[in-house]
Amino acid sequence: MTDSQLQRCKWCGDDPQYVAYHDTEWGIPVRDDRHLFELLCLEGQQAGLSWIVVLKKRDHYRKVFKNFDIAAVSRLSDARIEALLTDTGLIRNRLKLFSLRSNAHAALAIQKEFGSLETYFWQFVGGTPIDGQRKAHGDIPASTELSDALSKDLKRRGFKFIGSTICYAFLQAGGFINDHISTCFRYPQQKAANTH
Is 187 a catalytic residue? Predict the structure, then answer.
């Protein structure tokens, strides 16, 4: 079967970058703290926009925000972040850009309390990915009780741009939930990987 004949989740369309993201990243369990922090922050940058907008700017975000090194982002000055408002490679929203630093401070506090972001986030699903068992795109919710609980706890800890819908997108992208639809070629692959 050629790449163009593979059944995929419809949301990635036919943009090559989006298809590659779907095929090689989305839904694969993330356990690295730096990667979890990046994913959480970028999902927040997406608020009110589509993920493809953020995906196309992701490499520049990595360059500007020290590859999402949590300690380095926590040390960014007000002046440095203000200067980024003129950077067309970023989503130029003051609150969103400043949220990256406040999220870094909150992430450091979680690391201190739990030992790692991995331990903190994976406790919400008992350490094992949830099988969404979605038959069609319309079966996928925008938020759930799980994302509500995560959002509430993250807000309590000082995170910004972390509503329940953003949290659900984070849980999907980070592989906490296998939300590839059942006809997508990635669904059985990810299901098998998650059982080992």
Answer: no
| Three-class SS state of 131 | strand
pLDDT tens digits, one per residue of 36-83? 999 999 999 998 899 999 999 999 999 999 999 999 999 999 999 999
> 168 near 142, Cβ under 8 Å?
yes
Name the helix (H) or strand (E) containing 70: helix 70-74
Report how far residue 183's alpha carbon sits from residue 149's, in angstroms, rounded to the nearest whole number: 29
- The yes-or-no answer on residue 120 being catalytic is no
Q: Residue 196 pLDDT more than 70? A: no
Catalytic pick among 18, 26, 51, 187: 51
Residue 39 near residue 65, CB atoms below 8 Å: no
Beta strands in 73-145 (DSSP E): 130-131
Instruction: Write down all domains in the chain, each with its CATH number in brackets.
Output: 30-194 (1.10.340.30)
Residue corresponding to tokens 């730096």:
34
- Token pair 């999907």 in the structure block, residue: 172
Residue 43 bears catalytic tag:
yes
Catalytic residue among 18, 26, 38, 43: 43
